[in-house]
C-alpha cells in the first residue's frame, strides 16, 4: 500500500514538471504544442515514480538504481544543449550518484528535489546565461535535499 501523502507529492511534482515544460516551450512551440508537451512531461514524471514504486515492492536496490539512472537522464537532457555532451554526461553521472546516495536517506524526496532544481534551471535559462542558472540550480538542489532530510527526519521522529 502506498501512502496517500506520497501519492499527493508525486501528483504535485508531476504537475510542476508539466507546468514548467509548458511554460518553457510556450514561445517556441505555440500554446497547443506547449500544452501537449507539458502534459507529456507530467505523465512521464508520474510514470517514472510509478515504476520506482512498483520496483520497490519487488527489489528495493533496483529502485535505488532506477532513481540514479532517471536522475542522470533528467540531468543529461536538461544540460545537453547548454554545456555540450561531454560536460552534460559528466554532470549527469555525478548527479545520478548524488541522487542515488541521497535516495538511501530521503527516499523519493531526493528525486523530487532534483526535478524541482531542474525546473528552476530550465526557467532561469529563459532569462539568464547558463553559468548563473547552473549555480542557482546547484544551490536549489542542495537546499531541497537539506529540506528533504529535515522533513524525513521529522516524519521519522513522529512515528
TrEMBL record:
Top-level lineage group: Bacteria
Keywords: Membrane, Transmembrane, Transmembrane helix
Transmembrane segments: 32-51, 58-77, 97-122, 134-156
Lineage: Bacteria, Bacillati, Actinomycetota, Actinomycetes, Micromonosporales
Entry protein name: DUF4203 domain-containing protein
Annotated organism of origin: Dactylosporangium darangshiense
Amino acid at each position: 500500500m502506498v501512502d496517500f501523502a506520497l501519492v499527493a507529492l508525486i501528483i504535485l511534482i508531476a504537475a510542476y514538471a508539466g507546468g514548467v515544460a509548458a511554460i518553457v516551450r510556450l514561445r517556441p512551440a505555440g500554446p497547443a504544442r506547449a500544452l501537449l508537451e507539458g502534459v507529456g512531461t507530467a505523465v512521464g514524471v508520474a510514470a517514472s515514480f510509478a515504476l520506482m514504486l512498483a520496483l520497490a515492492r519487488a527489489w528495493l536496490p533496483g529502485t535505488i538504481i532506477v532513481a540514479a539512472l532517471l536522475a542522470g537522464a533528467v540531468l543529461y537532457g536538461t544540460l545537453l544543449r547548454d554545456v555540450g555532451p561531454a560536460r552534460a554526461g559528466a554532470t549527469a553521472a555525478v548527479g545520478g550518484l548524488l541522487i542515488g546516495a541521497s535516495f538511501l536517506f530521503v527516499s523519493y524526496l531526493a528525486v523530487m528535489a532534483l526535478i524541482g532544481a531542474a525546473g528552476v534551471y530550465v526557467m532561469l535559462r529563459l532569462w539568464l546565461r547558463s553559468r548563473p542558472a547552473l549555480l542557482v540550480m546547484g544551490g536549489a538542489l542542495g537546499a531541497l535535499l537539506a529540506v528533504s532530510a529535515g522533513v524525513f527526519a521529522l516524519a521519522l521522529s513522529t512515528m
